[in-house]
Amino acid sequence: MITINRVKQNIGLYFLVLPALIYVIMFDYVPLYGVLIAFENFKPIKGIWGSDWVGLYHFARFVHLDVFWVLIKNTLSLSLYSLIAGFPIPIILALALNSVTSKKFKKVVQTVTYAPHFISTVILVGMLNVFLSPRLGVVSQLLNSIGLTKGPLMTLTNPDAFSHLYVWSGIWQGMGWGSIIYLAALSGVDPSLHEAAKVDGATKFQQAWYIDLPSIMPTIVTLLILSCGNILGVGFEKAFLMQNSLNLSTSEVISTYVYKSGLLQSQFSFSAAVGLFNSVINLVLLLTVNKLAKKLGQNGIF
Amino acid sequence: MKSRVSKFLSCIMSIALIGGTLIACSDAKQNEGVMPSSEGNLLDGGITNATGFPITKEPITLTVGIANGAHMGDVTQYNLWKKIEEKTNIKINLKVYSDAEKANLMFSSRDYPDIGLRMDASDQAMSDAIDAGDIVGIDNLLQYTPSWKKFFDTNPELKKQALMPDGKLYGFPYAVLNETSYNLRDQWFINKKWLDELGLQIPTTTDEFKNVLMAFKNNAGKGSIPKNVIPYYILYGNNIGGQFDIYGAFGVYTPGSYFIVEDGKYKSQATNPDLKEPIKYLADLYKNGLIVPEAFTDDWGRYTAAISSIPPLVGSMTSFGDQGQNVSDGKWWTPIAPLKSPNGKNPLIRRQTKSIWPRNYVIFKNNKYPVASARLAELLADPEWSLTENFGSEGVWWKNSSDGKYELLSPTTEVADADKALGNYGIALLDEDMFNNKIVNDNFKKEGTREWAYENIYKKYLPEKNLNYPPMPSGLLSDEEKQRMTDLSKSLNDYIKTTIANWISGKGDIDAEWDAYVKKLKDLGLDEYMQLNQKQLDAASKLGHE
């Protein structure tokens, strides 16, 4: 009875949340039954209910692939590298920007660093290919003219260089955008703390270290947990576009493999199975990190 | 990946939702219209004349699905549709599928047109539709289409390509059998202008070829040779413009993959030790800077840009088309014969497979006039109609010459959409007899054209037997076998491609690593892969013999 009364009292709020609720149910929950195709030999003509049930066949098939461990290794190392190198940089950028006194300088730096975010992946990879082109690229010409290298620059075809190119171009593109959320969190820090610190004679660095960083720690932890939940989900487009026959040994990740041998060959069940496999592992990782964060005295996401 | 897959999934789900509800509505009365009705010689429920024109006694409308080719302009404006309506009483209502996804969606939702020309749906979609009985088998309709019946009867090898796993035919083909087109993959070009400037002869052996390329490289920046010259351009691993013709020069035939079919046996060239010699030759060219590292990173777009650049950047390359026609003064490129190698074996050039597009005109079961549709296919097989379908309007692209032959024309001005050709987006029947005896093509006399080069240079370098993998319907293997084959094919071909690329680019020693490479291929399941392919091949060769 009490609940009904409370709903009646706040009926306006429930109306406000209704469209979002319908959206989530319609587009996120209703289609969920489609994961069934991961367990069948799906034929569009027979439909989801009519296709032959094969159980875990597609999962076993994926795990028994010769390249399975190579795919896992490439995918994991790429995303761990991205995380370790890429996660702290927006934080450092945000802390640094926050400590800058000149408003104008701060705005210029902010605009310059997040402009690359608006470049599409295709263009970004195109730029990489043009700049690093073995013989005629700017970098190759420059290095040759000052005598640092001799002959063509083989970065694009070198399997060992792939992960560095992938990660650092990603950092260049994403750090400005990634720092926005930290800047927002920093604007909520109580100014009186800074004033008190100044009176005590703290330097800029000490202020950032002892005041700003602890204040945005909850935001950092939340974002870290969320990124851990995406650890097997290495972006498809970029890896696919950067592949060539010489760097395939490190550039083939789960998503590009599934695209080439699953979707292009109309093997929807196989693709769905691998997608589901990814999601389950990501979920497990997310829960683990969440628990860990709580153990360490931070707020988890739930 | 996450967003791709989830997009795909949600797409599939919506398809399946619609598809699932429709399955219940289908029934199996597909042969109803084929049977002669009680009204004498009128078919399709009393509408269609068995012979003579117009095909139907009163006007009917048929919906015709077709894929959209970028080069085709507005296909609805073609004169062909008007001509059909005037002659047959059948009004064509075109439904254009702008990309493969739309066609696949149409198949999945079973929202079929009456007739499907080329729609670019996946093989799987087509064979699923046939399994479900959604496409009318044409064996019963061949009595109304004498030209197609004769075509299938006199070309058993091509008929085999058209048969589905149940041994039946399900569509009328695009059968344009032009030997100069199908029997040669790439022509091999050399930059004649640069040769002349340097006072060099056209190379005939692999050693001479290397010397010529060295000369191109050493004279970069002189005359018309640009500073950033690419002496020999290959698009590594690609069927078109790839390195496979170098293998051929050393007598190792590879059709664009490393697997061939000899006398019905599936064979691997990837483990053929004869491959070592051409790979070493390529590695030597690479080491000397005659093949550039871009060979491994360029994509199709940059290949076409590199080979068609004006003025040329490239000293030698392979390509299907006549580059000579694309460069203003026509004197840059000249086709050369495959090079002789030191091992003394006969050099080989690659051919394509003689093939038809077997289901470019299918009749769906919701079509109320299957006989009229078949008779329309028969009309489209007529030689003059076929010329119009394949080349374009009469008077613009071809004309009747006085001796009962047909002369091909090359219009010099922009051609209106109305006069354009369907080409392999529709059907046509132009067999070798047409091309050899009835169609007059001036290009055979013009030095430097593909037709000329085929007759005068390449014909004698083709391998005696056809070693290419023949086209075959999907569905000859079980789903599990097919999936296993896909997985094996991916891992084997990736390994072959990467390893050979390493050898060419000097990152490994082929002599030292060859045995390990062969062993690794075996470990990856080469034998199983070959067995599966052999099984599919055997199943295909049995088709039509029951």
Automatic annotation (TrEMBL), chain B:
Signal sequence coordinates: 1-24
Tree of life domain: Bacteria
Assigned keywords, A-Z: Signal
Protein's name in the database: ABC transporter substrate-binding protein
Native species: Paenibacillus mangrovi
